[in-house]
Amino acid sequence: MKTNAAILRRSGAPPPYSQSRPLSIEQVDLSSPGPTEVLVRVAAAGLCHSDLSVINGDRPRPLPMVLGHEAAGIVVELGAQVEDLAIGDHVVMVFMPSCGHCARCAEGRPALCEPGAAANAKGELLHGGTRIRAQSETLHHHLGCSAFAGHAVVSRRSLVKIGKELPLTHAALFGCAVLTGVGAVVNTAKVQAGQSVAVVGLGGVGLSSVLGATTAGASQVIAVDLSTRKLDLARELGATAVLDGADPDVAGQVRKLTSGGADFVFEMAGSVKALENAVRMTRRGGTTVTAGLPPPDAVLPVNIVSLVSEERTLRGSYIGTCVPVRDVPRYIALFQHGRLPVDRLMSGTLKLEDINRGFDQLREGTAVRQIVNFLI
Predict the structure, then answer these.
(1) Of residues 356, 353, 341, the one with CA closest to residue 174
(2) pTM, two decimal places
(3) Which residues of the chain form beta strands (DSSP E)?
(4) Which pLDDT tens digit goes with each residue over 48-57?
(5) What are the beta bridge partners of residue 162?
(6) CATH number for the segment(s) 2-175+341-373
(7) Does the fold of domain 181-319 match that of domain 2-175+341-373?
(8) 181-319 maps to which CATH number?
C-alpha cells in the first residue's frame, strides 16, 4: 500500500530545521506484513530526543530511514501467524522488539533482547529485512517502528494491545517517554516510599521520572533543568524543589537539601556534564541511574576510589528496564486512576508536514512532547 512518511536521508542538517528541512514528506510503498508482522494505521506519534539525535548525527543510524518510534495506532492487517490480535485493536508501539527466546528475554529482560538490538542497529524488522520503499529506494526502519508515517508494518513483538477507551494521542506517550522515565524509577532503581530522588534533565523522559518518583512515594523529588518553564511544570507535577541546572553549585544545593545527597539521582539529559553532576548529587551508598543517550564516543571519568569506598552504584537504564506487556497496561491504569498524569507532558499536536518545525521546538527546549496527530 501507499502512505505518506517523513524520510531522513542525511543527518547533520543545520538548524533551524524549518528551513533546512532534514525530513522530507513523501509517498512511500509498504509491503504487506510478513507472517509474524502487523500493518498498523498510525494515529499518533511523539517527537522524542532520540529522533532528534538521529537528525543531528549524535546517534548514527543506517540511512535513508523513516523516523519515529513513540506511537500508537489501530491494527489494519495481520500476518498469517499473528493470532492474538484482531483488526481494529488499539496498540502501542515499543521501540525494542523482544524475540522471547534469547538469553536476555529468557531471564526476564526483554528490553535487552539481543536479536531485537541487532535488528534495530541494521534498521530492519525483528525477523529481517525492510518493508518500506520510495520508488526504487529501500528505506530503513527506525527502531522497528518508523512511526512518522500514516501506516507502518511492524513486528508483532513491537506491539502491546491496549483498551480503546484511552485516546491514542495519549497512548503514544506510553511507548517511550513513560516506559523509560517511570520505568527507570520503579524497575531499574526500585525507589521506595520515603526515599529521596533528584532528576536531572526534564524532557518527556525526565518529567516522567518525576511522576514516577511522586507515585512511588519519594519523600523528596528535586528537579534540575535549564528551562524555567520545565521547572515550573515539574513543580506542578509533584517536585518538592526545583533547581537551575546552570548553577555551578547545583550539586551542592542538592546535597544540602537532602543532608548529604539524594538516595537516587536520575540523569535524563544525555550529557556527560549532567551525568557528572548527577554522580555528585548522589549520597554515599546511593545510586545514580542514567537513561540519557549522549553521542557514542562520550566518556565519563569515574573516581574509582569513591566508587569503592563509598559503595556507590552507577546504573544504566534502557526503556526503563521494562517488560512491555506488563508495564504499559500498568502505567495506563495509573493514568486512568489519576495517579500518573502523563497528559500534562503534551505540549501540543501538529500535522506530519509541520514535523521539521516541531523538531526546532524540541531542540530549543520550548516543548516537552509534541504529538503528530494523523487523525486530524
Answers:
(1) 341
(2) 0.97
(3) 2-8, 23-30, 37-46, 65-66, 71-78, 90-93, 132-134, 137-141, 151-155, 159-162, 196-200, 220-225, 241-244, 262-267, 282-290, 313-316, 346-350, 369-373
(4) 999 999 999 9
(5) 90
(6) 3.90.180.10
(7) no
(8) 3.40.50.720
